[in-house]
Design brief:
alpha/beta, 12 helices, binds flavin-adenine dinucleotide
């Protein structure tokens, strides 16, 4: 009740107060904040993936603005010699308004990244987007084989089949590059696993398939059990450093993050930033007042 009350008054509280909750998970409002945080991680031998926070878009003009922001972000990051890449959500480029417009925007971003030898990760959003995002990835991957990757969600029952279905795009020269995560959206039971044990089992099955087939895996989790499971698979398949990394979210489980780094594994941190953090955080906190985790969710939800 108390949480609910707090959440309902959040939008009316001073921005500075909300920032106290949000700042652990969002690197800041400006591109300079993102550069500063990225350089700090880089100095600790940790890579980053940068994400511009966006609001749910209602028009294709907003999609155009979002594209320009990413094109600028790529330029600025390269100028700052950031050891990192970029994560992008197709709905912010109009996926659910006009998928061809979204494709053209994403293509421009990936082409720019490719021209600078960089990489764009397509974040996976909720299930109405899954087919569209797999299709978008296929089109871009065919044209830019080394510069685009996709996220897969272990909680979706379809994921193992998706993985097998994309195996034709895998080559030894340029492996498929996936980020594997549990998945953050609330999905219907018919299409998703709900129990933690089940999700974890499928996470490790998906990961094993990637390793067996020499695909690149970004192992995105803060779950100690999964990290240990991943260690076992890396050992079992003698996976070379060139074919995997661990990934975590900015502000989450820094101790565990350091232990993975200390164990000699590559680590990449997801660094979100942008002016729209306030609307994002307050709306999500209001919907479900489980403070911290919902600020994290705000990073991934678009509407
Ligand atoms: C780099 C990265 C990118 C991601 N990209 C996507 C994406 O594109 N699409 C998508 O659907 N999901 C994405 N996610 C989110 C992911 O799907 C999970 O929802 C999220 O990572 C929590 O799952 P977990 O594996 O950490 O396990 P959990 O069981 O949720 O968490 C394990 C432990 O981590 C700690 N923890 C987890 N979250 C928090 C928190 N918010 N605050 C404090 N401690 C916490 C707790 O100690 C918890 O017990 C991404 C996650 C990461 C790390």
């Amino acid at each position: 009740m108390f949480n609910k009350f707090i959440a309902s008054i959040l939008p009316y509280l001073p921005k500075k107060l909300i920032w106290i909750f949000s700042r652990s998970y969002i690197s800041g409002e400006t591109i300079d904040d993102a550069m500063r945080v990225s350089k700090e991680f880089n100095s600790k031998n940790i890579k980053v993936t940068l994400d511009v926070l966006g609001e749910f878009i209602k028009s294709l003009e907003e999609a155009e603005t979002n594209k320009q922001e990413y094109l600028n972000l790529i330029d600025v990051s390269i100028r700052n010699r950031i050891d990192g890449n970029f994560s992008a959500k197709p709905t912010s480029f109009g996926l659910l308004i006009d998928k061809e417009v979204c494709y053209r925007h994403m293509r421009e971003i990936v082409a720019k990244a490719a021209s600078l030898n960089s990489f764009i990760r397509i974040d996976m959003e909720d299930s109405p987007c899954t087919d569209l995002e797999v299709e978008l990835f296929r089109r871009l991957k065919t044209e830019f084989p080394a510069n685009v990757g996709l996220v897969l969600q272990a909680y979706l029952k379809r994921t193992f089949d998706d993985l097998k279905g994309m195996a034709d795009l895998n080559t030894e020269m340029i492996p498929l590059n996936f980020r594997l995560c549990k998945g953050i959206y609330i999905e219907p039971e018919a299409i998703s696993y709900k129990k933690k044990g089940e999700i974890n089992q499928h996470f490790l099955e998906d990961l094993e398939f990637m390793f067996k087939n020499k695909m690149y895996a970004g192992i995105a989790t803060h779950d100690k059990i999964l990290i240990e499971g991943a260690y076992r698979l890396i050992e079992k398949y003698k996976v070379p450093e060139s074919l995997y990394e661990f990934q975590m979210l900015y502000g989450v489980t820094p101790g565990l993050r350091q232990s993975v780094v200390n164990n000699g594994h590559a680590m990449r941190i997801y660094v979100p930033f942008g002016e729209k953090w306030f609307g994002y955080s307050t709306r999500r906190l209001k919907e479900n007042p489980k403070m911290a985790s919902h600020i994290i969710k705000a990073i991934f939800y678009k509407g």
